[in-house]
Amino acid sequence: MESSLPTIATGAAILGVLSHQRYFIHGEWDRHALTLLYLFIACPLALTVFLTVSVDSAPVRRLWLVLWASYTGGLLLSIAVYRTVLHRLCQFPGPVAARVTAFWSFKCSAVELQWHTRVQSLHETYGDFVRIKPREISINDPSAIKDIHSASTQCSKGPFYDLNYPHRSLQMARDKRFHSNRRRLWDRGLGTKAQVEYEPFIQEHCEELARQLGIRHSEPVEVTTWINWFAFDTMGRLVFGKSFDMLKASAYHPRMEQLEKVKKLGGLLHCAPWTLIMLRKLPLIRHKAREWIDWCGEQVEERRQRGLANMDLFHFLIQQSVGPTDQDLIYDSELAIVAGSDTTAATTSAILFLLAQNRECLTRLREEIVALRSTVPTPASHSSLAALPYLNGCINEGLRLYPAVMSGTQRQTGPNGTVIAGRSIPPDTLVSTPTYTLHRDPRNFTLPDNFIPERWSTRPELVLRREAFNPFSTGPYACAGKSIALMEMRMLLATLVGRFDFTFAPGYDTKTLSLASLGGHGVQDCFTTHVPPYEMVFTKVTAGLDMVARAANRMES
Ligand code: HEM
């Protein structure tokens, strides 16, 4: 048998190559990641241990190891050669390692959580079309946004969206029909009519945050945590009809704390989304994930018991659900809590940070808000806030500099390929538009790294390509909560800026607080953006008459 080992090894290696060429090269494997892990790693390892412990025959063990190593070697070699020199995406430039494996970015995307800046530097090096993974290209051209995301696009959601497979939330729905039916309900639950009902609840939470900051007047306060509590509490009320009451308790709800702890795993989504699909199914992790989903299920069930009297998102969603076993609805509740809180909280924390860094902008914003207060009752209605150009400019700048989803979202070209930004893209290619990079490209915005709220009102010449601004995405899969998010941010900023002055806590200087170095890491890309903790001191302001007069004069002129 010893003498025939080379022949056996060659046969196994050829089998490895053939299984790639005939089988694994076709279709999507992401959702089967756990099965493949068992098949190619766990089972062979178990067999090796079994042979070592139970079979007292060195030749049999050797034969098995040669078979396993040769087959796996043939398979991996075939994959590497195909991806490096034969793949349809070889025409696109990019790092050589990115051709071979998505894990080339593991350290940067999953450990350092800096994928957004890495993609930006890749575009600076390789141009507007970059192959960032074996099957994926990033396109840094504003016209690609319409080609990829609009209603008429040839592209659809990629395998990234199998994260909850076989269940699907609205966001994770790849089936267009299922998505558009579900989306109609969401649009009613978050639409203009519903927003009028939600306004008092949002204001209630703004008041509670202002009250809590008032109590801590002149003390250092960790801003991001308070903003997180505000965002989670508000979403609890808007989604399930009841606040999580974290602001009142000044403490995390245990479930939300759990969410915050696992948030950084989101970096894996930029490396290889299937690793998260797989991890979530592994026994220990599955148990933890199950606890969270069961809790979401309990919230849905409790909400269902309360009937249709309350106006909230689930008022609309439960009308069409099929009973307690509707798992998709449970995943929708997870989506509403996470997508609705995390994003708004990160953007608001970033805006407060930017305002504290740019004090002349803070003063101008306060003047605008105080001037409004002198003409309308306190607190101002959302519709009057929505008309304030400087407030909207500050929010747009926050969304531009630190979009809540910085690296864009994955789409896939159809079986015939498509043309994106004037270039022909092969079939079944994963494509994305890097929002952070587009927002900071000097071809799209003059002085792209500077916080200049005026570019959205009095200095439009600083916006060179408006279509590059895409924080909420566009088309049928665009953010369902855009209007609610803007409403929350306008109301909260008006409350805080109108009532408090704020500066960084002693010990910080504006240089070390630059978001690029905050906490040693700066802003992190966990699929949604993470703004690291920072401290500020809030001091109550009494709106002096002189300030109101100055603001009124400025508005008149
Ligand atoms: C600053 C705040 C926010 C930003 C920047 C933001 C951004 C985005 C982006 C970029 C997407 C597209 C994701 C994808 O294609 O995979 C998205 C989807 C979504 N967002 Fe938001 N979001 C924000 C706040 C909210 C809020 C407050 C809600 C309310 C519940 C919400 C609910 C959703 C939902 C349900 C989707 C999935 C839509 C679909 O697939 O049809 N978002 N958001």
TrEMBL record:
Molecular-function annotations in GO: heme binding; iron ion binding; monooxygenase activity; oxidoreductase activity, acting on paired donors, with incorporation or reduction of molecular oxygen
The protein's matches in SUPFAM superfamilies, at most eight in alphabetical order, are given as: Cytochrome P450 (SSF48264)
Q: InterPro entries under this entry?
A: Cyt_P450 (IPR001128), Cyt_P450_E_grp-I (IPR002401), Cyt_P450_sf (IPR036396), Cytochrome_P450_monoxygenase (IPR050121)
Ranges annotated as spanning the membrane: 35-53, 65-85
Binding of heme: at which residues?
C479
Q: Does the keyword Transmembrane apply?
A: yes
Q: Which cofactor does it need?
A: heme
Q: Which keywords does UniProt give here?
A: Heme, Iron, Membrane, Metal-binding, Monooxygenase, Oxidoreductase, Transmembrane, Transmembrane helix
Domain of life, per the record? Eukaryota
PANTHER family annotated for this entry?
CYTOCHROME P450, P450, PUTATIVE (EUROFUNG)-RELATED
Q: Which family, according to the similarity comment? A: Belongs to the cytochrome P450 family.
Q: What name does UniProt use for this protein? A: Cytochrome P450
| Organism of this sequence | Aspergillus campestris (strain IBT 28561)
Taxonomy of the source species: Eukaryota, Fungi, Dikarya, Ascomycota, Pezizomycotina
